[in-house]
Amino acid sequence: MKKCRHCEQGKVTRPRGLCWACYYMPGVREMYPSIGNKFAQHGPDDFFGRITPPPFPTAALPGSPEKIAILSQRAGLGQELFHPDDATFDRRLEPKYAG
Question: Which residue range forms the structural domain that includes residue 74?
């Protein structure tokens, strides 16, 4: 039997790992984030507004930790994710000869 995250006495019967009494006590519910709920909102809010372009391109390659951090920062600022001059992989394939 799981115990309440707040009072550590009651049986967990409500979301967020809280007992009935703690869940409905003013201010307690906001102290504990939602856990294990696939319908809970996670990550940045949806943004439906005017999107500004990023102020500068990045030299980070696609898929690199640096590029992912920059994309996350741009999303948080409500900017377009990609700048036209961002670095890309070189798509030209050069044959390699076994020698």
Answer: 43-88
